[in-house]
Automatic annotation (TrEMBL):
Entry protein name: Nucleoside triphosphate pyrophosphohydrolase
GO MF annotations, alphabetized: ATP diphosphatase activity
Enzyme class: hydrolase
Classification via CDD domains: NTP-PPase_MazG_Cterm, NTP-PPase_MazG_Nterm
Domain called NTP pyrophosphohydrolase MazG-like: residue spans: 41-113, 179-238
Domain of life of the source: Bacteria
Biological process according to GO: dATP catabolic process; dGTP catabolic process; dTTP catabolic process; dUTP catabolic process; response to stress; TTP catabolic process; UTP catabolic process
Family, as annotated: Belongs to the nucleoside triphosphate pyrophosphohydrolase family.
Entry's EC annotation: 3.6.1.8
Species per Swiss-Prot/TrEMBL record: Jannaschia faecimaris
PANTHER family: NUCLEOSIDE TRIPHOSPHATE PYROPHOSPHOHYDROLASE (PTHR30522:SF0)
InterPro entries in the cross-refs: MazG-like_dom (IPR004518), NTP-PPase_MazG-like_C (IPR048011), NTP-PPase_MazG-like_N (IPR048015), NTP_PyrPHydrolase_MazG (IPR011551)
Catalytic activity: ATP + H2O = AMP + diphosphate + H(+)
């Protein structure tokens, strides 16, 4: 295919996925492509892939449906980018990626494309999905229980996935009360480290506390990532209400003090409860 024919596809509207694939091929052309795109590799693109996934989640969290289409397009571009680099290396391409995930979905839904029974709860379907994944790991010779939990996941999410894996082989507390006891134990150890130990040891104890809090969320059926995102949003709302109240008086937070701002925070909490 000549550069001109590539450009014809790239600049033709309504070309859909073939157009996007052609654009990426053109950008990566070693002779006529974009210098920045040519220089990229899987490692350099991976952070953008993660960022775009978060931007999709952010648009959904904010109910920003007018933005979601664009964010999904940005995420799709990341897949296309990796697919083009895989093609160049002779490892895989977009078609093989799509075919692999399509076959995985068929294999993991025997109750749809097989002789499995659809008359089961969502919880049972999740359990069946996890059993299918475990079988796939065994076939891939991932022999250890925690193998395959991606290192690149956000730490809080990875903690939950590691705990879920361990729980499947019986390494788990039987009820929430024991997890709460462990939270108190780890909090006490953090206080002890703060008062008597090194910064490195304080960091270790903080990690232990966060890990067991993630476990508590798992036992309570709470998504800790989602819960923390909601807490971040709540903090942002309330702090901005402090700024607004001070701005009405011609001031900024640096011209206030903790006592006043704490009172404004409490007022914001009251207003939120009254509007629920």
């Amino acid at each position: 295919m000549t550069p001109n024919s590539k450009d014809d596809i790239c600049t033709t509207p309504d070309g859909g996925l073939p157009r996007l694939l052609a654009i990426m091929e053109r950008l990566r052309d070693p002779d006529t492509g974009c210098p920045w795109d040519i220089e990229q590799d899987f490692g350099s693109i991976a952070p953008y892939t993660i960022e775009e996934a978060y931007e999709v989640a952010d648009a959904i969290e904010r109910n920003a449906w007018d933005e979601l289409e664009g964010e999904l397009g940005d995420l799709l571009l990341q897949v296309v980018y990796h697919a083009q680099m895989g093609l160049e290396d002779g490892r895989f391409d977009f078609h093989s990626i799509a075919e692999r995930v399509a076959q995985k979905m068929v294999d993991r839904h025997p109750h749809i494309w097989g002789d499995g029974n659809r008359d089961k709860s969502a919880e049972q379907q999740v359990a069946d999905w996890e059993a299918a994944k475990a079988k796939e790991r065994a076939q891939a010779k991932a022999g250890r229980t925690l193998d395959g939990v991606a290192l690149g996941l956000p730490a809080l999410l990875r903690a939950v996935k590691l705990q879920n894996r361990a729980a499947r082989v019986g390494f788990d507390w039987p009820d929430t009360s024991q997890v709460l006891d462990k939270v108190q134990e780890e909090a006490a150890e953090l206080v002890e480290a703060r008062d008597h130990l090194s910064k490195t040891e304080v960091e270790e104890e903080m990690g232990d506390l966060l890990f067991v809090v993630a476990n508590l969320a798992r036992h309570l059926g709470v998504d800790p990532e989602g819960a923390l995102r909601a807490a971040n949003a709540k903090f942002t709302r309330r702090f901005e209400s402090i700024e607004d109240a001070l701005a009405a008086d011609g001031r900024t937070p640096v011209q206030s003090d903790l006592v006043e701002m704490d009172a404004l925070w409490d007022a914001a909490k009251v207003r939120e409860k009254e509007t629920k």
